[in-house]
Amino acid sequence: ELQRMVTEIEGRDIGGSSGERVDVSKEGLFFFLSRHEEAIPSGPAALDRILALGNPDFVTHPKVQAFKASHHGATITEIAALAQSVGLPMQPAYRNPGAEPPPRSLLHWKLGHFSAIVKVDKDRGQYLIHDSILGQEIWLSRAVLDEEGTGYFLVPAGELPKGFRKVGEKEASQVRGKCGPKPPPNPTGNNNPGGG
To answer: Which conformational region is residue 163 in: left (phi greater than 0), alpha (psi within -120 to 50 degrees), or beta?
Structure first.
């Protein structure tokens, strides 16, 4: 899908922030097709960002650093198992449109990758998303999550948030997140893939 969109806009004069997003998409596609082994799996990168929250001295867990996805990406089940292995119990769940997603959760996009929800502003209905492919954090509305997300999440283990349902193993195995290009070197020397 991404390759089709990039091909369609090839040769067009696109400037400003839209042009920057196109450049990021092209770079991500290049890495996925030709240098997959160097790419950053979006699920572990999002998980890494959540683990880093509130910890200025955070260093990426070796298991997160070592995780390698296949060319088909990593399933939400695999990311849940990785989270469990580093002491962060999480569970796959499906969010009904309009439901309030919790902070410190992972969401799955229709484009086929994972992002971390690092903060929630309930009053404004806004969510601070960390995205490894964009290499930044951005505030998004609930409407964007409804329209652009698949509805699948990784949420903290325990009672599910209101408006969420459990996801069985077979269903979860179909939810995959792909990779993105490595972010630029971090001047602080923190090597974590999520840039967090």
So the answer is: left
As given in the structure block, the two tokens for residue 2 are 């991404």
Question: Residue 72 has which token pair?
Answer: 């088909």
What does the alpha-carbon distance between residue 130 and residue 194 come to, in Å, rounded to a whole number?
8
Long-range contacts of 21-26 (CB under 8 A, 24+ apart): 24/133, 24/134, 24/135
Question: What is the pTM (predicted TM-score) of this model?
Answer: 0.72
Alpha-carbon dihedral angle through residues 129, 131, 137, 140, given to the nearest 10 degrees:
-40
Taking only the tens place, the pLDDT of each residue in 95-111 is 999 999 999 999 999 88
For 67-123, what is the HEC assignment?
Answer: CCCECCEEEHHHHHHHHHHCCCCEEEEEECCCCCCCCCEEEEECCCCEEEEEEEECC
Cα 119 to chain centroid distance, Å, stands at: 14
DSSP 8-state code for residue 133? T
Mean residue pLDDT of the chain comes to 77
Q: Which amino acid is at 123?
A: D
